[in-house]
Amino acid sequence: MAWIHEGRLDGEGLRLAIVVSRFNSFITQRLLDGALDCLERHGVETDEISIFWVPGAWEIPPLAIRVADTGEFDCVICLGAGIRGETPHFEYVSSESAKGVAQAAMLSDVPVIYGIITADTVDQAVARAGTKSGNKGFDAAMTALEMTSLYEAVADMEEIGVMAEMAPEAAAEEE
Ligand code: INI
How far does the centroid of ligand 1 lie from the alpha carbon of residue 57, in Å? Predict the structure, then answer.
């Protein structure tokens, strides 16, 4: 039979960071509200959440990786909003912030979650910030809980694996 590993949605005892951008703040504030609602409903203490505001989505990845590298947090959630304008600026900002968050996630020891929405219109952005299409900040926070618990599960497996090589009985007790 296969071993199934799934993340839990239990936020008790977790310390979380949220990096959120001010650009399009009428949307990003809603994403932040959604994320906080999710975390608090799942048992994360308010004073275990740190919020870092940055100017725009471009600035999210460089700060996110530094926040992750402090070792102070179990997970970093990135929230932002790109809305297409009349110039190509949006394309550069959106694609680089997506790549940057992906890079931060690959390089960090803790999960770095991508909660930056990209929309062609203000209506599309509004729909993803708590109206017709739900709240992508809430969804990002759910993903954060799930991934944090999976990272912990894998870290526990590594620890038990090392113990098993040294002393099989001690590893069995730990399990
Ligand atoms: N920043 C955003 O967060 N969303 C956008 O839609 C956006 N557009 O389209 O311009 C945007 N630009 C600002 C950018 O993130 C930087 O803050 C700025 O370029 C300074 O580095």
Answer: 6
- Catalytic-role residue among 41, 89, 157, 170: 89
5 is catalytic: no
Q: What residues contact 65, with CB distance under 8 A and at least 6 apart?
A: 103, 104, 107, 108, 112
| Residue in the block written with tokens 């809603």 | 30
Domains in the chain, please, with CATH? 16-174 (3.40.50.960)
DSSP state of 30: H
Beta strands in the chain (DSSP E): 16-21, 49-54, 75-83, 112-119, 129-131, 134-135
| Mean pLDDT across 81-106 | 96
> 3 C-alpha to center of ligand 1: Å?
44
CA distance 141 to 147: 10
* Ligand 1 atom closest to Cα of residue 22: 3
Asked whether 116 and 92 are in contact (CB, 8 A), the reply is no
Ligand 1 proximity of 80 Cβ (cutoff 6 Å): yes
- pTM, to two decimals: 0.92
What would the pLDDT profile of 105-160 be if each residue is shown by its tens digit?
Answer: 999 999 999 999 999 999 999 999 999 899 999 999 999 999 999 999 999 988 87
Query: CB-based contacts of 2: which residues, under 8 Å, 6+ apart?
Result: none
